[in-house]
Design brief:
The complex is a heterodimer of chains A (483) and B (139). By secondary structure, chain A is an alpha+beta fold. Chain A is built from 16 helices and 19 strands. In chain A, the strands form four sheets. In chain A, strands 7, 8, 9, 11, 15, 16, 18 and 19 form an eight-stranded mixed sheet that branches. Chain B has one domain: Archease, Possible Chaperone, Chain: A, domain 1 (3-Layer(bab) Sandwich), CATH 3.55.10. Chain B has two helices and eight strands; from the N terminus they run ββαβαβββββ. In chain B, the strands form two sheets. In chain B, strands 1, 2, 6, 7 and 8 form a five-stranded antiparallel sheet that branches. A three-stranded antiparallel sheet of chain B has the order 3-5-4. Chain B is globular. The chains are: A alpha+beta (483), B alpha+beta (139). At the A-B interface, helix 7, helix 9, helix 13 and helix 15 of A face helix 2 of B.
Chain lengths: 483, 139
């Protein structure tokens, strides 16, 4: 297979031509720098490379239009990270490789009535308060304790469960993707082990690239959209990143094994073992989809409990702050959505692995307040650079099934980052730049060094220039609590 | 060298070496736990039995690792030593022991949580007279 011969459509759109067993072509939304980085991995003959993964996804039954990689693309397992694959609801499949272990890993942003200066004056006490109140790091447990009966309510209720139980507020629900609850979640399809692993993990952040960050609006690119989103320069936003915790991990584990058997049973040919799958309209496929929905709801509930804790932590320093929800979006999901294919509206199962929904103006899934300008897309950057708020577009609806990037995307392995950076030195450097970071692991901080990631400005520029998602605002960090 | 962490941009590859495949399974488990905790700080105070099975030896490795992750959470343990016996009839079966002690956030220097072991990059090979088995784990 020739993975190096990519066809340039525009400076920001590249096609991996259909060849051998590919049912559709691959499409990559990035500039030459990003494309060259991908090609380099192929030339070096690396064991895992994203171009091969894009091609592998293109070979799967029922895939629609093309196998997509966005500008934060890098090698994943099964799908590339930054990958999108949409499958026909009759002939298509649902695959573990397109969802992964951290089901509905999401970013939530909360607004404040504060300005940059308010945080700078109180950075230390606020950092300490957030660090203390948010359970984070490997092995941490939450204050919420669940039993088998309650966990089933979490899995069916999602963020609604949280609100009913005193975490978060009714008003939040409107500003969460899917209003914080997907309906197809049947806890019968989730193992006891998975439920049990979650008993003590509700309301925890996790580790690795999970964080809570206090940011300010450093730049606005689109006045009209910013006004609709209610964002002004110097405004303070609180964002956090985490997922469905151990419950999601165990659903992944359980179904990895089950789907391996199912793939064999139905004689589905896959190019990477991690792409184990089930026909979407089979009993097994629907069971997995339902289990994934349980994971999605668990992550929604987890985010709502964390929202509650962050509000409490903020009140210690800023008693009048209510932190209303700005928006919350997930990036390891499979969703039932209607999209236009060959001029016809079709029901599809859209897998987004390390990519987010980015619906264009008018879609009814978008909160009324934002609907006419398009869905807010929260792009999490590194602790030393910046994050972005983008908006979904009509073009994105037409070419990426309404999907955009989820972050900067790593450019360096954790192993290399740990050799190159030292946690304590990094913290000092960031401190000198007015960024206050506190983490649960020094090695973890080194692995998350800003230099280990792609240049987020470039990655976002590719989205903007290709028209997939347009820039609205840039957010810069002041405080970061690392998991 | 009994194990090695392999470079992967998003996640981490783990590789266990051994004179036998069973030893490679043991060192592979050590590789995975070395991502999460400081192995040297964990005393062997409690043994946890692990049983799993799979249609082939590679898949058995992933099963073994995932079973350890499940047990780590359910029993709130840190593991640092492992013993594995593999049997083959119509499928592959593993009976193993993981030794360690109750997870201690202060003592075990927790680092990065492993979310799951994947079939990606999964392979058995030989290097310098040793057998190795490897896969990518999601972090």
């Amino acid at each position: 297979m020739d993975l190096l011969n990519l066809k340039r459509i525009t400076d920001y759109e590249w096609e991996l031509p259909k060849q051998e067993d590919m049912r559709v072509p691959g499409m990559i939304y990035g500039n030459t720098e990003i494309i060259e980085h991908l090609k380099e991995d192929v030339r070096l003959g690396k064991d895992w490379n994203a171009l091969k993964q894009i091609a592998n996804v293109a070979c799967m039954p029922g895939i629609q239009k093309c196998s997509i990689a966005l500008s934060d693309v890098h090698p994943g397992y099964g799908f590339p990270i930054g990958g999108v694959g949409a499958f026909d609801s009759e002939e298509g499949v649902i695959t573990m490789g397109g969802i992964g272990f951290d089901i509905n890993c999401s970013v939530t942003a909360l607004k404040t009535s504060l300005k940059e200066e308010d945080i700078r004056k109180n950075a230390k006490p606020l950092l300490n308060s957030l660090f203390k109140i948010v359970p984070a790091g490997l092995g941490s447990t939450g204050k919420v304790r669940l039993n088998f009966h309650q966990i089933d309510e979490v899995l069916t209720g999602g963020a609604e469960w949280a609100v009913e139980n005193g975490y978060g507020e009714e008003k939040d629900l409107e500003f969460i993707e899917e209003n914080g609850r997907v309906k197809e979640a049947d806890p019968e399809n989730v193992s006891e082990k998975a439920k049990q692993r979650q008993f003590k993990q509700m309301g925890t952040l996790g580790s690795g690239n999970h964080y809570v960050e206090v940011q300010y609006v450093a730049e606005i690119y689109d006045q009209e959209a910013a006004e609709i989103y209610g964002l002004k320069e110097k405004d303070v936003v609180v964002s956090f990143h985490c997922g469905s915790r151990a419950l999601g991990h165990q659903i992944g584990t359980d179904y990895l094994k089950k789907l391996a058997e199912v793939t064999k049973k139905y004689g589905i040919k896959i190019k990477d073992r991690e792409l184990v799958c089930a026909p979407i309209n089979s009993e097994e496929g629907q069971r997995y989809f339902s289990a994934v929905c349980c994971g999605v709801n668990c992550a929604f509930a987890n985010h709502e409990v964390l929202t509650h804790l962050i509000r409490k932590g903020f009140k210690e320093v800023f008693p009048d702050e209510k932190l209303p929800k700005f928006y919350s979006i997930g990036h390891n999901t499979c969703k039932k959505e209607y999209h236009e294919v060959d001029g016809k509206k079709k029901l599809l199962y859209v897998h987004r692995k390390g990519s987010t929904r980015a619906f264009g103006p008018g879609r009814e899934e978008i909160p009324k307040k934002y609907r006419k300008i398009g869905q807010p897309v929260l792009v999490g950057g590194t602790m030393g650079t910046c994050s972005f708020i983008l908006r979904g577009t009509e073009k994105g609806m037409n070419v990426t099934f309404g999907s955009a990037i989820h972050g900067a995307g790593r450019a360096m392995s954790r192993k290399k980052a740990k050799h190159q950076y030292r946690g304590d030195k990094l913290l000092k450097e960031l401190e000198n730049r007015g960024i206050h970071v506190r983490g649960h692991s020094m090695a973890g901080i080194a692995e998350e060094a800003p230099g280990a990631y792609k240049d987020i400005i470039n990655v976002v520029e590719c989205m903007d220039k290709s028209g997939i998602a347009k820039k609205v605002a840039m957010l810069k960090p002041i405080i970061n609590v690392k998991g | 060298m009994d194990y090695e962490l392999l470079e992967h941009e998003a996640d981490i590859g783990i590789r266990g070496y051994g004179n036998t495949i069973e030893e490679a399974f043991e060192t592979g488990a050590r590789a995975m736990f070395s991502i999460m905790i400081d192995l040297e700080t964990v005393k062997s105070e409690k043994n946890v039995k692990i049983k799993c099975e799979a249609p082939d030896i590679e898949a058995l490795f992933v099963e073994w690792l995932n079973e350890l992750l499940t047990k780590k959470d359910l029993e709130e343990m840190s593991f640092s030593r492992f013993e594995v016996k593999i049997y083959k009839d119509d499928i592959y079966r593993l009976e193993g022991t993981a030794s360690g002690e109750r997870f201690d956030q202060k003592k075990h220097k927790p680092k990065l949580e492993v979310k799951g072991a994947t079939y990606s990059g999964l392979k058995i090979g030989k290097k310098d007279e040793k057998i190795f088995i490897q896969c990518i784990v999601d972090v």
